[in-house]
Design goal:
74% of the residues lie in helices and 0% in strands. By secondary structure, the chain is mainly alpha-helical. Among the domains are: 3-76, no CATH class; 329-480. The radius of gyration is 29 Å and the shape is globular.
Amino acid sequence: MDLYKIVGQLTQEEFEEIYTTFLTNNADKSAAFLKTIRENPETPDKQFLDEYQIAASAFYVLKSRLNQKVESFLLSRVGDPNLHVIHRVLNVEDLIFNNSREISLAALRKLEKELVRLDFPYGLMVVYKALQNLHAFDEDNYSFFRSKYNRQAAYTLAMNESMDHVIQFFRAYDNFYLNRKEKDFTEMIRLMEKIDNKNNLYESHRLYIFKTIIHIFAKLFIEIPPTIRCEVEPIGDMFDKSFQILEDFKDDAFYVNISILFNFLRFVHYDNEKDSRSKIYYDLLNYKMEELLARYHYNAPTSLFLFRKLKFHLETDSIEELNLEIDQYISKIEVEPYRVSSYLNYHLFISYAYFFAKDYKKASRILYNIRNELNLRKHVHAHLEVKFLLALTYVLMEDHDLANQLILSLQRQLRKQTMARYDHGKVLLKVLTVALQGRPNTREKNLVNHIRKWKEVNVGHYAFLDMVDLEGLFLVEPEKVGVN
């Protein structure tokens, strides 16, 4: 556990609660060190040691105890409205050892009904094993509950595998998003088929939710081939059933926590359809920006919301307002670099926002830092987008040296045989080269030709910089220029 990072991420209310607990229990030094971490996260150890003059061994013990206290506090905050049901499951052995057989059977059958309603397979396995053992001398019921236990064990395995399919699907999408490789696309289709098969084996609202997460996302973000070996329901039907489940089990922690993912998916759907209801979900997601970007949603690429947000501000001519929001709030959200796509999208979004505000210096600085902080060489598509956008900012800044360096680097990269799908990048290089050093008498005419060609070929899976209006950047009155 990274104590310093966690203390920095605590809400003010959580911090004050822990701090007050230390003071109440006369743990003044622990309280003081906690406060030091909060106020000076860069060098808290040095500051604390200088101020309190304690031995290194004593400080090690103090830090270790503080670590344990913070862990215990965080664990105590974990709650679930269905905790009372889980508590009953944990006490099943106590129930059957300390009550008559009839009372135990009645209590277990009542608990079974509640667990079936909640679709809680781990608890049902405990209950069915207890019912099986209580019917040890009743062959029919013993076999009946053993069969139920075995089916529940198989279902539990299917549930775990379905959860794995969701995570694997989004890993495959991440790889496809960064690299545009066919094998990752094929893997996504395979996982769509597998999770559909799992869902068809059992009557389970949780399995259905896992399936719809994948199938809805696929309908929104990839082109599902007609050869897929499973039925993909109409997206409206999937949304209606899923939101009904979320409503029916609104006190279930699982559904409470994934509701933001479904809100994201519904927003994208409405946005694609130009449905005015998209604004409702846009405002909701915008309000929960930090949760959307920094929390766990089965690894779904919720950072893609940022580009929809950028599009909204471009369409409403409110880029300055967006940049103010970035400076005051969004830039302070901590997005971890362990997941390349989310970290990249977050910084690309900020870079694009500065770019469209014509603050090319800030935009280029962020893009330059991205190339240093992330190893993008193995992520071909993402690497090209960052390099081309950075080259474009250098051209607009009229920084000939840096622009030419990147243009030459991109030319070498695009000559490789493995880059055949990026021939459209060569057209963009012509645009950048002419914009940077084209002859005055033919510059505008050549730009019109190259930009027109760029718009024709920059389509499909391998397109990039699709939000950038090259005509608006380089052509003052393009309609008046003759095109060959």
